[in-house]
Design brief:
Length: 393
């Protein structure tokens, strides 16, 4: 009898912990991550300046609240096995840095790895999961990105579940970001384990390219998202990887296309550029509230590729309140006429009634779905529109 009482107590305590994690990511998490721009070249000063910039630039107020320090902050373990932050680069320590980040109204994210070492050879959490989770809680960590290098023969689901249990046990609510690059098809098992999972290998800073280890340009990631949309939704998101907006390679139209499609996929949005030095155009692309609203739509439905005519693709996404987002993207190097005007397109989709059409990048109404709105799309450009019902006929 006593045994059942104690088992019941343990079950009750762990479900209380689980509850604290349940609603942390009702919409896709947004923030900034150090990797795309800085890789291992990070230190406390840069992170503090990024935190300042997130407030001054208006990124925080646009919704980018998680500041995530990626690989290379850790340097070893002490004789008791506690993880140690690099004292040369982070002399004040992670608790103090976390306090600073919190003082700016931001949330503090950190990175580790499910294997014995991170991808850059720093200590991984394998065998130290519960100890590391307690340490992160004591530093005030709110978000953990958990990578998959040096995992030997570990099973992904079991390894990621161990860290989830460790986070539950430590008791501090943490958004848990699974990063096995889609290798184990986490969309099939991870909804009860993490809040988001990387669905592809790393993004590369290019529009259309691939590399030898599986890195992907923007359009390659878009292709990889054609079949996994049904797995995403509130509190468990397909993650299309961190943004390359503002990193000096993509053109403004490519950056708009990149942002638009990440929003169409309801992907988490982690800016990956140097926020201290961004120009106005980059800031406007990252903080376009009409586009961010598509990403953050409460239904959390990922877009479907509805048509592909050569280089032209048409994607749609149902939104809350009988509204719709459509993206027309031109992947090629020649302009594309939307020979089908928007009226025909919308009719083909069998959306009944009349809708007003709003261009989300130009912030302009284009007329009604009953008008013949014709367009030409420049190479690598996007038309992103929202349809709002104006009448039933
Ligand atoms: C990769 C991961 C990247 C970055 C890098 C750090 O495995 O996909 O986003 O975290 O490791 O070493």
């Amino acid at each position: 009898m006593k045994k059942y009482f104690f088992l019941g107590l343990i079950f009750f305590a762990s479900s209380l912990h689980a509850q604290k994690f349940e609603n942390l990511a009702k919409t896709p998490p947004m923030g900034w991550n150090s990797w795309n721009k800085f890789e291992c070249d990070i230190n406390e000063q840069t992170i503090r300046e990024i935190a300042d910039a997130m407030v001054v630039d208006g990124m925080r107020d646009a919704g980018y609240v998680y500041l995530v320090i990626d690989d290379c902050w850790q340097i070893g373990r002490d004789s008791s096995g506690n993880i140690i932050a690099d004292p040369n680069r982070f002399p004040s320590g992670m608790k103090s840095l976390g306090d600073y980040i919190h003082s700016k109204g931001l949330k503090f994210g950190i990175y580790s790895d499910a294997g014995t070492a991170t991808c850059q050879g720093r200590p991984g959490s394998r065998g130290y999961e519960f100890q590391d989770a307690r340490t992160y809680a004591s530093w005030g960590v709110d978000y953990l990105k958990y990578d998959w290098c040096n995992h030997g023969k570990q099973n992904a689901e079991a390894s990621y579940t161990t860290m989830r249990d460790a986070l539950y046990k430590a008791g501090r609510p943490v958004v848990y970001s699974i990063c096995d690059w889609g290798v184990s098809k986490p969309w099939e098992w991870a909804a009860g384990v993490g809040h988001l999972w990387r669905s592809t290998e790393d993004i590369l800073n290019c529009f259309d390219c691939k590399n030898y280890w599986g890195g992907n340009g923007v359009v390659q990631i878009i292709d990889l998202f054609t079949d996994i949309g049904q797995y995403t939704g509130p509190c468990h998101w397909n993650d299309a990887d961190m943004l390359e907006v503002g990193n000096g390679v993509l053109t403004p139209s490519e950056e708009r296309l990149h942002m638009s499609m990440w929003a169409m996929f309801s992907s988490p949005l982690m800016a990956g550029n140097d926020l201290r030095k961004m120009d106005r155009e980059t800031l406007e692309i990252l903080t376009n509230s009409e586009v961010l609203a598509i990403d953050q739509d409460k239904l959390g439905i990922s877009a479907t590729r509805w048509m592909k005519y050569g280089d032209l693709e048409i994607w749609f996404k149902p939104l809350e309140g009988e509204t719709w987002a459509f993206c027309f993207i031109n992947r090629g190097s020649q302009p594309v006429n939307l020979d089908q005007d928007l009226k025909t397109t919308i009719k083909k989709y069998k959306v009944d009634g009349s809708y007003t059409i709003r261009d989300l990048w130009k912030h302009q109404d284009l007329g009604s779905s009953k008008d013949n709105v014709k367009m030409t799309l420049a190479p690598h450009d996007v038309l992103m529109i929202k349809l709002t019902r104006s009448s039933t006929h």
